[in-house]
Specification:
Strand content: under 5%
Oligomer: single chain
Order of helices and strands: HHHHH
Shape: elongated
Number of strands: 0
Number of helices: 5
Distance between the termini: 42 Å
Number of domains: 1
Structural class: mainly alpha
């Protein structure tokens, strides 16, 4: 969901950030990640998973995940002044629904949410890497 949000609600909606280097950073990270992920799934379905694909799936995230997250956060940060200036997606009071929404504040909350979420997901993948690749190494010893 974060990818849809970042592409549509930030990058598509704030034209000024589309030429930022941070966009390239997260797009490259996402692209490499998806190529590895779907190669892994394809070879797994064919019951012929090369070790290199398995290794890439459980190792390259060490660089790609922080790279993607950095690109995402830098892109949101670059969008903030434009969102505030234009009042993009914000609803102010008074209105007939007696409801307000500040998209600028929402983006800041999204950025803050990365603080507890990123380490949890990252260390989960570290744990998965240790479990999957150490199992592979043990299996190779017995062959």
């Amino acid at each position: 969901m974060s990818r849809v949000f970042l592409i549509w609600a930030v990058t598509h909606s704030v034209k000024e950030v589309q030429s930022e280097d941070s966009v390239l950073l997260f797009v490259i990270a996402w692209t490499i990640t998806e190529i590895i992920r779907y190669s892994f799934y394809t070879f797994s379905l064919l019951n012929h998973l090369p070790y290199l694909i398995k290794w890439a799936r459980y190792t390259l995230f060490i660089v790609l995940y922080p790279m993607g997250v950095s690109g995402e956060l830098l892109t949101i940060y670059a969008a903030l002044p434009f969102v505030r200036q234009a009042g993009l997606y914000s609803i102010s009071l008074p209105n007939k629904y007696n409801f307000s929404f500040d998209y600028y504040a929402f983006l800041i909350l999204i950025m803050i949410s990365y603080i507890p979420i990123f380490p949890q997901l990252y260390f989960h993948m570290i744990h998965q890497r240790r479990k999957v690749l150490s199992h592979t190494e043990e299996h190779k010893k017995f062959e």
